[in-house]
Write a structure and sequence with these properties.
Oligomer: single chain
Number of helices: 11
Shape: globular
Distance between the termini: 26 Å
Number of strands: 11
Radius of gyration: 20 Å
Strand order of the largest sheet: 2-4-3-10-7-9-8-5
Protein backbone atom coordinates (compact mmCIF):
# COMPACT_ATOMS: atom_id res chain seq x y z
CA UNK A 1 0.00 0.00 0.00
CA UNK A 2 0.98 3.65 -0.41
CA UNK A 3 2.38 5.72 2.43
CA UNK A 4 1.60 9.40 3.07
CA UNK A 5 4.44 10.69 0.90
CA UNK A 6 3.42 8.45 -2.02
CA UNK A 7 -0.14 9.73 -1.83
CA UNK A 8 1.03 13.33 -1.58
CA UNK A 9 3.23 12.94 -4.65
CA UNK A 10 0.41 11.38 -6.68
CA UNK A 11 -1.93 14.18 -5.61
CA UNK A 12 0.69 16.76 -6.60
CA UNK A 13 0.97 15.22 -10.07
CA UNK A 14 -2.82 15.41 -10.42
CA UNK A 15 -2.57 19.14 -9.87
CA UNK A 16 0.27 19.65 -12.34
CA UNK A 17 1.69 16.64 -14.13
CA UNK A 18 4.80 18.56 -15.21
CA UNK A 19 5.51 20.32 -11.93
CA UNK A 20 9.30 20.24 -11.26
CA UNK A 21 10.35 17.84 -8.52
CA UNK A 22 11.97 20.80 -6.77
CA UNK A 23 8.64 22.63 -6.49
CA UNK A 24 6.80 19.49 -5.34
CA UNK A 25 9.54 18.86 -2.77
CA UNK A 26 9.29 22.39 -1.42
CA UNK A 27 5.53 22.07 -0.91
CA UNK A 28 5.82 18.58 0.65
CA UNK A 29 8.72 19.55 2.90
CA UNK A 30 11.20 16.94 1.61
CA UNK A 31 14.20 17.00 -0.70
CA UNK A 32 13.96 16.97 -4.50
CA UNK A 33 16.05 13.78 -4.50
CA UNK A 34 13.46 12.08 -2.27
CA UNK A 35 10.62 13.09 -4.60
CA UNK A 36 12.52 11.88 -7.67
CA UNK A 37 13.32 8.58 -5.98
CA UNK A 38 9.69 8.04 -4.95
CA UNK A 39 8.50 8.88 -8.46
CA UNK A 40 10.84 6.30 -10.00
CA UNK A 41 9.72 3.66 -7.52
CA UNK A 42 6.04 4.34 -8.16
CA UNK A 43 6.63 4.09 -11.91
CA UNK A 44 8.23 0.68 -11.44
CA UNK A 45 6.03 -0.78 -8.71
CA UNK A 46 2.67 0.98 -9.06
CA UNK A 47 2.37 1.56 -12.79
CA UNK A 48 2.46 5.34 -12.26
CA UNK A 49 2.50 7.29 -15.51
CA UNK A 50 1.94 10.94 -16.34
CA UNK A 51 0.63 11.30 -19.90
CA UNK A 52 -0.16 14.41 -21.94
CA UNK A 53 -3.44 14.27 -23.85
CA UNK A 54 -5.06 16.66 -26.31
CA UNK A 55 -8.58 17.69 -25.36
CA UNK A 56 -10.77 15.73 -27.84
CA UNK A 57 -13.11 18.62 -28.56
CA UNK A 58 -10.32 21.09 -29.21
CA UNK A 59 -8.45 18.52 -31.33
CA UNK A 60 -11.48 17.87 -33.56
CA UNK A 61 -11.89 14.28 -32.32
CA UNK A 62 -14.94 12.31 -31.25
CA UNK A 63 -14.75 9.52 -28.68
CA UNK A 64 -16.77 6.34 -29.17
CA UNK A 65 -17.22 3.85 -26.36
CA UNK A 66 -17.50 0.48 -28.09
CA UNK A 67 -18.81 -2.77 -26.58
CA UNK A 68 -17.89 -6.06 -28.26
CA UNK A 69 -19.24 -9.44 -27.26
CA UNK A 70 -17.05 -12.30 -28.40
CA UNK A 71 -16.62 -16.01 -27.91
CA UNK A 72 -14.34 -16.99 -25.05
CA UNK A 73 -11.86 -18.46 -27.53
CA UNK A 74 -11.44 -15.26 -29.57
CA UNK A 75 -11.88 -12.50 -26.95
CA UNK A 76 -8.19 -12.26 -26.03
CA UNK A 77 -7.06 -12.01 -29.67
CA UNK A 78 -9.63 -9.33 -30.45
CA UNK A 79 -8.73 -7.35 -27.33
CA UNK A 80 -5.05 -7.59 -28.25
CA UNK A 81 -5.76 -6.21 -31.72
CA UNK A 82 -7.60 -3.25 -30.21
CA UNK A 83 -4.73 -2.59 -27.78
CA UNK A 84 -2.27 -2.33 -30.69
CA UNK A 85 -4.34 0.27 -32.54
CA UNK A 86 -3.14 3.87 -32.16
CA UNK A 87 -6.71 5.20 -32.09
CA UNK A 88 -7.86 3.27 -28.99
CA UNK A 89 -7.67 3.80 -25.24
CA UNK A 90 -9.17 2.17 -22.14
CA UNK A 91 -9.40 -1.35 -23.55
CA UNK A 92 -10.97 -3.59 -20.91
CA UNK A 93 -12.07 -7.19 -20.56
CA UNK A 94 -15.43 -7.27 -18.80
CA UNK A 95 -18.35 -9.57 -17.94
CA UNK A 96 -16.48 -12.82 -17.45
CA UNK A 97 -13.97 -12.12 -20.22
CA UNK A 98 -16.40 -12.42 -23.12
CA UNK A 99 -17.05 -8.70 -23.46
CA UNK A 100 -14.52 -6.07 -24.51
CA UNK A 101 -15.01 -2.35 -24.05
CA UNK A 102 -12.76 0.24 -25.64
CA UNK A 103 -12.69 3.93 -26.47
CA UNK A 104 -12.05 4.68 -30.15
CA UNK A 105 -10.92 8.18 -31.12
CA UNK A 106 -12.21 9.29 -34.52
CA UNK A 107 -12.33 12.50 -36.55
CA UNK A 108 -15.35 14.53 -35.44
CA UNK A 109 -16.95 14.31 -38.87
CA UNK A 110 -16.79 10.48 -38.97
CA UNK A 111 -20.22 9.15 -38.06
CA UNK A 112 -19.51 5.47 -38.82
CA UNK A 113 -17.47 3.94 -35.98
CA UNK A 114 -18.36 0.46 -37.25
CA UNK A 115 -15.81 0.69 -40.04
CA UNK A 116 -13.19 2.03 -37.61
CA UNK A 117 -13.93 -0.75 -35.16
CA UNK A 118 -13.68 -3.63 -37.60
CA UNK A 119 -10.51 -2.38 -39.28
CA UNK A 120 -7.56 -4.50 -38.13
CA UNK A 121 -9.71 -6.68 -35.84
CA UNK A 122 -8.91 -10.36 -36.51
CA UNK A 123 -11.41 -11.93 -38.89
CA UNK A 124 -12.06 -14.85 -36.56
CA UNK A 125 -15.83 -14.78 -36.71
CA UNK A 126 -15.73 -14.67 -32.93
CA UNK A 127 -17.53 -11.33 -32.57
CA UNK A 128 -21.19 -11.97 -31.75
CA UNK A 129 -22.40 -8.43 -30.96
CA UNK A 130 -21.23 -4.84 -31.37
CA UNK A 131 -22.60 -1.57 -30.02
CA UNK A 132 -21.07 1.90 -30.27
CA UNK A 133 -21.88 4.81 -27.97
CA UNK A 134 -20.71 8.34 -28.75
CA UNK A 135 -19.37 10.11 -25.65
CA UNK A 136 -21.33 13.35 -25.55
CA UNK A 137 -20.12 14.92 -22.32
CA UNK A 138 -17.76 13.92 -19.51
CA UNK A 139 -18.73 14.79 -15.93
CA UNK A 140 -15.96 12.90 -14.10
CA UNK A 141 -12.69 11.89 -15.73
CA UNK A 142 -9.89 13.86 -17.33
CA UNK A 143 -8.94 16.99 -15.34
CA UNK A 144 -11.76 16.15 -12.91
CA UNK A 145 -9.81 13.53 -10.95
CA UNK A 146 -11.05 10.54 -8.93
CA UNK A 147 -11.42 11.92 -5.40
CA UNK A 148 -9.97 8.96 -3.56
CA UNK A 149 -6.65 9.28 -5.39
CA UNK A 150 -6.32 12.99 -4.59
CA UNK A 151 -7.04 13.58 -0.92
CA UNK A 152 -3.53 13.92 0.50
CA UNK A 153 -2.79 17.65 0.26
CA UNK A 154 -4.37 20.49 2.19
CA UNK A 155 -5.85 23.61 0.63
CA UNK A 156 -2.67 25.64 0.91
CA UNK A 157 -0.58 22.89 -0.71
CA UNK A 158 -3.10 22.48 -3.52
CA UNK A 159 -3.05 26.20 -4.22
CA UNK A 160 0.76 26.16 -4.43
CA UNK A 161 0.83 23.33 -6.97
CA UNK A 162 -2.32 23.56 -9.06
CA UNK A 163 -1.84 24.49 -12.71
CA UNK A 164 -4.17 27.29 -13.77
CA UNK A 165 -5.47 27.57 -17.30
CA UNK A 166 -5.48 30.89 -19.13
CA UNK A 167 -8.45 31.60 -21.37
CA UNK A 168 -6.21 33.60 -23.69
CA UNK A 169 -4.25 30.50 -24.70
CA UNK A 170 -4.31 28.71 -28.06
CA UNK A 171 -7.71 27.18 -28.77
CA UNK A 172 -6.72 23.96 -30.52
CA UNK A 173 -3.66 21.92 -31.55
CA UNK A 174 -2.20 22.41 -35.04
CA UNK A 175 -1.02 19.65 -37.42
CA UNK A 176 2.60 20.49 -36.65
CA UNK A 177 1.97 19.66 -32.97
CA UNK A 178 1.60 15.96 -33.81
CA UNK A 179 5.11 14.83 -32.79
CA UNK A 180 4.99 16.88 -29.59
CA UNK A 181 1.65 15.40 -28.57
CA UNK A 182 2.75 11.85 -29.44
CA UNK A 183 5.84 12.22 -27.25
CA UNK A 184 3.76 13.53 -24.34
CA UNK A 185 1.34 10.61 -24.68
CA UNK A 186 4.28 8.30 -24.11
CA UNK A 187 5.67 10.31 -21.20
CA UNK A 188 4.04 13.48 -19.99
CA UNK A 189 7.14 14.38 -17.98
CA UNK A 190 9.57 14.10 -20.88
CA UNK A 191 12.23 16.81 -20.59
CA UNK A 192 12.46 19.87 -22.81
CA UNK A 193 15.60 18.48 -24.44
CA UNK A 194 13.92 15.21 -25.37
CA UNK A 195 10.86 17.02 -26.71
CA UNK A 196 13.12 19.32 -28.73
CA UNK A 197 14.86 16.29 -30.22
CA UNK A 198 11.66 14.53 -31.34
CA UNK A 199 10.05 17.70 -32.72
CA UNK A 200 13.14 19.31 -34.27
CA UNK A 201 12.27 22.54 -32.42
CA UNK A 202 14.45 24.51 -30.05
CA UNK A 203 13.85 24.02 -26.31
CA UNK A 204 12.51 27.58 -26.15
CA UNK A 205 9.96 26.82 -28.88
CA UNK A 206 8.92 23.62 -27.09
CA UNK A 207 8.45 25.53 -23.84
CA UNK A 208 6.41 28.25 -25.51
CA UNK A 209 4.19 25.80 -27.42
CA UNK A 210 3.55 23.69 -24.31
CA UNK A 211 2.48 26.82 -22.44
CA UNK A 212 0.18 27.84 -25.30
CA UNK A 213 -1.48 24.44 -25.56
CA UNK A 214 -2.01 24.13 -21.82
CA UNK A 215 -3.21 27.70 -21.37
CA UNK A 216 -6.77 27.14 -22.59
CA UNK A 217 -7.00 23.41 -21.85
CA UNK A 218 -6.12 22.19 -25.34
CA UNK A 219 -3.54 19.92 -23.65
CA UNK A 220 -3.94 18.35 -20.22
CA UNK A 221 -2.02 15.81 -18.17
CA UNK A 222 -3.52 12.58 -16.89
CA UNK A 223 -2.12 10.39 -14.12
CA UNK A 224 -2.39 6.61 -14.33
CA UNK A 225 -1.76 4.46 -11.25
CA UNK A 226 -2.81 1.04 -9.98
CA UNK A 227 -6.09 1.59 -8.11
CA UNK A 228 -5.40 -1.54 -6.06
CA UNK A 229 -2.93 0.54 -4.05
CA UNK A 230 -5.89 2.64 -2.89
CA UNK A 231 -7.70 -0.49 -1.66
CA UNK A 232 -9.68 -1.13 -4.85
CA UNK A 233 -10.29 -4.82 -5.62
CA UNK A 234 -13.61 -4.65 -7.47
CA UNK A 235 -14.25 -2.56 -10.58
CA UNK A 236 -17.37 -2.33 -12.71
CA UNK A 237 -18.78 -0.37 -15.62
CA UNK A 238 -22.30 0.88 -14.97
CA UNK A 239 -24.68 1.47 -17.89
CA UNK A 240 -27.65 3.60 -16.81
CA UNK A 241 -30.90 4.61 -18.43
CA UNK A 242 -32.30 7.94 -17.26
CA UNK A 243 -35.14 10.08 -18.58
CA UNK A 244 -33.65 12.91 -20.69
CA UNK A 245 -35.20 15.56 -18.47
CA UNK A 246 -33.40 14.06 -15.45
CA UNK A 247 -30.07 13.26 -17.09
CA UNK A 248 -28.16 16.33 -15.91
CA UNK A 249 -29.54 16.02 -12.38
CA UNK A 250 -28.46 12.38 -12.11
CA UNK A 251 -25.07 13.00 -13.76
CA UNK A 252 -24.20 15.80 -11.35
CA UNK A 253 -25.29 13.62 -8.42
CA UNK A 254 -23.06 10.78 -9.67
CA UNK A 255 -20.17 13.23 -10.07
CA UNK A 256 -20.27 13.69 -6.30
CA UNK A 257 -19.88 9.97 -5.53
CA UNK A 258 -16.40 9.00 -4.35
CA UNK A 259 -16.90 5.49 -5.71
CA UNK A 260 -16.96 6.71 -9.33
CA UNK A 261 -13.83 7.50 -11.35
CA UNK A 262 -15.66 8.21 -14.60
CA UNK A 263 -19.12 9.52 -15.49
CA UNK A 264 -20.22 10.47 -19.02
CA UNK A 265 -23.31 10.97 -21.14
CA UNK A 266 -23.57 8.73 -24.20
CA UNK A 267 -25.79 7.86 -27.11
CA UNK A 268 -27.49 4.48 -27.27
CA UNK A 269 -30.07 2.51 -25.29
CA UNK A 270 -28.37 3.69 -22.10
CA UNK A 271 -27.54 7.38 -21.82
CA UNK A 272 -25.10 7.48 -18.88
CA UNK A 273 -22.01 5.36 -18.24
CA UNK A 274 -19.84 5.26 -15.13
CA UNK A 275 -16.92 3.31 -13.72
CA UNK A 276 -17.17 2.22 -10.09
CA UNK A 277 -14.08 1.43 -7.99
CA UNK A 278 -14.88 -0.44 -4.77
CA UNK A 279 -13.05 -2.40 -2.10
CA UNK A 280 -14.78 -5.73 -2.80
CA UNK A 281 -18.06 -7.15 -4.22
CA UNK A 282 -19.88 -6.42 -0.97
CA UNK A 283 -18.78 -2.79 -1.15
CA UNK A 284 -20.04 -2.58 -4.74
CA UNK A 285 -23.36 -4.10 -3.66
CA UNK A 286 -23.75 -1.53 -0.89
CA UNK A 287 -23.04 1.26 -3.36
CA UNK A 288 -25.53 -0.04 -5.97
CA UNK A 289 -28.34 -0.57 -3.47
CA UNK A 290 -27.55 2.47 -1.34
CA UNK A 291 -26.27 5.69 -2.89
CA UNK A 292 -27.10 4.67 -6.46
CA UNK A 293 -30.41 3.09 -5.52
CA UNK A 294 -31.49 6.33 -3.86
CA UNK A 295 -31.56 8.06 -7.26
CA UNK A 296 -35.14 7.31 -8.25
CA UNK A 297 -34.68 8.92 -11.67
CA UNK A 298 -32.60 5.91 -12.81
CA UNK A 299 -34.92 3.63 -14.79
CA UNK A 300 -32.52 0.77 -15.51
CA UNK A 301 -28.97 -0.32 -14.64
CA UNK A 302 -26.60 -2.85 -16.18
CA UNK A 303 -23.42 -3.74 -14.28
CA UNK A 304 -20.38 -5.12 -16.15
CA UNK A 305 -17.55 -6.28 -13.87
CA UNK A 306 -14.10 -5.26 -15.16
CA UNK A 307 -11.71 -8.19 -15.09
CA UNK A 308 -8.66 -6.48 -16.52
CA UNK A 309 -7.56 -3.21 -18.09
CA UNK A 310 -5.31 -4.01 -21.04
CA UNK A 311 -4.69 -0.43 -22.13
CA UNK A 312 -5.24 2.88 -20.37
CA UNK A 313 -5.20 6.42 -21.80
CA UNK A 314 -1.59 6.23 -22.95
CA UNK A 315 0.09 4.01 -25.56
CA UNK A 316 1.13 0.57 -24.36
CA UNK A 317 4.90 0.45 -23.90
CA UNK A 318 6.94 -2.48 -25.14
CA UNK A 319 10.03 -2.07 -22.96
CA UNK A 320 10.80 -2.46 -19.28
CA UNK A 321 8.98 0.80 -18.54
CA UNK A 322 5.63 -0.80 -19.31
CA UNK A 323 3.26 -0.14 -16.36
CA UNK A 324 1.08 -2.73 -14.68
CA UNK A 325 -2.36 -1.96 -16.13
CA UNK A 326 -4.63 -4.47 -14.47
CA UNK A 327 -6.10 -1.86 -12.15
CA UNK A 328 -5.07 1.42 -13.70
CA UNK A 329 -7.53 4.27 -13.35
CA UNK A 330 -7.77 7.70 -14.90
CA UNK A 331 -7.41 10.49 -12.45
CA UNK A 332 -7.91 13.35 -14.87
CA UNK A 333 -10.35 13.97 -17.72
CA UNK A 334 -10.20 10.79 -19.80
CA UNK A 335 -12.68 8.40 -21.17
Amino acid sequence: MLDDLDRALIHALHLDGRAPFSRIAEVLGVSAQTVARRYRRLRTEAGLRVVGLADPGRAGRTQWLVRLTATARSAQDIAGALVRRPDTSWVKLTSGGTEITAVIHAPAEDASPGSLLLHDVPRTGGITAVSAHCLLHTYVGGPANWRRSAQALDEQQRAALEYRENAEGVRQPRPEDGELLAALERDGRAGQGELARVTGWSPATVSRRLAELRAAGALFFDVEVDAGLFGVRTRALLWLSVRPADQEKVAFALAGHDELAFVAATTGRTNLVAQALCRDPADLHRYLTGRLGALREIDALETSPVLRTLKAASPVLTDSARPRLRGTVPTHRAG
